[in-house]
Amino acid sequence: MVSPFRRHQQMVRGLKSAGPNHVSHRTPTTAPEPETNTASGQEYAALRVLLHDNLRALADTASIEARNPMKAEFAKAFADWIEGVLKAGEQGTAVQDEILVTNMVWAIDYRDFDYALRLGAHALKHGLVLPERYNRTVACFLAEDIATVALAQHELVSLEQLLQVLALVDGADMPDPAKAKLHKAIGRAFRRRAETFDPSADNAPAGGKSAFATEALTHLQRALALYNDVGVKTDIKDLERLLKALGDTDTQTDQPTSNGDP
């Protein structure tokens, strides 16, 4: 178990790791890693050795079900370093960090999406890249993998988290099917909000059920425009019928009632 002093050292060195070779917002090329002739660089190198030991242990484990709890446990050893790196990022400096981006991937796998989004926001802001084995950008990985989980197990990913992903990857280049999958997940999340809408709730939006249904339709139509085989055509037809029914109901409600006068 790491001592509190050692944990503090890791966080401080993570904070200092950026040094003078920091990267700018959304740098398209690979940024330099921490310099090895500094205490921070040496700490990074030692943690990177541990990271690769962990990756080998994961590669030796065939079961995905078994690997994901291992990733959650492994992540604890890097948490203090990463907090230091995030603090440096808040001050506008960062370097390429395999430890941070790998932990972002792991966090998605063990379903800590808030943590994954914190790390993803830093990576996107400072132009960090994923190791070559992932063959995708950070933005594409976040959009596609979180959307995949949301579509398969919607109770694990909130609508708010999906909207945060969309905001983070806004303007990022990625294959259209990946972006379509994210809009599909968001559209279905809005549809579920429409289906479970409670008009008496304190946070009920203006426009009521139709507001959620309209948002759902907008995202699903965007998904279809991006990728024709995304699988939302039935959803769109259902929502169009729902919105028509809601519009008809509103029209009937707005009709004046007869009082019997000629």
Report the major sheet: none
Q: Write down the overall geometry.
A: elongated
- Give the tally of β-strands: 0
The percent range for helix content is 55-70%
Element-by-element helix/strand order:
HHHHHHHHHHH
Number of helices: 11
Distance between the termini: 87 Å
* Low-pLDDT sequence parts: 18-29
The structure class reads mainly alpha
Task: Give the total of domains.
Answer: 2
Which range does the strand content fall in? under 5%
Q: What is the residue-mean pLDDT, rounded to a whole number?
A: 87
What is the rounded Rg?
23 Å
Account of the 3D structure:
By secondary structure, the chain is an all-alpha fold. The protein has two domains: 1-135, no CATH class; 136-252, no CATH class. The protein contains eleven helices and no strands. The protein has helices at residues 4-16, 39-59, 64-75, 79-90, 98-109, 113-125, 138-152, 159-169, 176-195, 208-226, 233-254. The chain is elongated and about 70 Å long.
